[in-house]
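Re-run with default settings, no changes from the original entry. Doing this only to confirm the output is reproducible before filing.
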Amino acid sequence: MSLSKKIAAALDENTKAYNLPCAVSVEEGQSHLTLHLTGLDTVGVAFSNLEFAANSRTDWSAEALRGWGERLASRITYLMEPLTVVETDAQGGEVQIRSQRPTPRDEQRSYYELRLFRQGTLRMQRFAFDKETRERRQTPCQLTREVLERLADDIAASVG
């Protein structure tokens, strides 16, 4: 069973049984995915964090992380904003991916941020930057279930 089918089954078990906020985790082979849910219904999900671990490797080089980031950015083309690798921290063992063009609403610009870590882990979040206060704050990622399922499989497939 694929990671997407497992996450779909976990969410379908009983949409109303979850006491939000909560975490839902699934595993398939060497892939582990956890969603920190803030909202859930039959159409979509809202989450503060999506965490993924590729247990096939435990220590990724900066080059390997950057390659993973580039594969992710080229593969995940269906979110509200296209993604791009913005920074590689070779010493810290981290790659940062963000939306190329944040979505403007009122005085804020919202964007996705994915961080890849040398342990073979990924964290996805969404942020809003307020131009007036010059501060950013975390906001929920809101996806349909179909997009979430596709995202789960694309993250796993991009590990390479």
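Residues 105 and 128 are 9 Å apart (CA to CA). The longest strand covers residues 44-54.
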